[in-house]
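Write out this protein's structure.
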Amino acid sequence: EEDGADIIVRVERLPALQTLEQPVVLLAARIIVVRSGPDAYRALSVECPHSGCAVSNVVGQRLVCPCHGSEFDATGRRLAGPAPTGLTE
């Protein structure tokens, strides 16, 4: 849910966030949420740095852009594809 300029994610409502480093794509909020520790979370932009498509596919713990195949890890680091950089945290 949005609160002004902030986005509030109710992590208890997302069972996938019980697993460390498992990305969860929230397209409506335009973010990817990853549980990075027992009480720590990371938010990444869904916007692929290659052409702006929404990185919306999760394959294991990899994030894949459906437009041109760029791949990123759960920290947003670029692993493969035409994206010149990783995802914005």
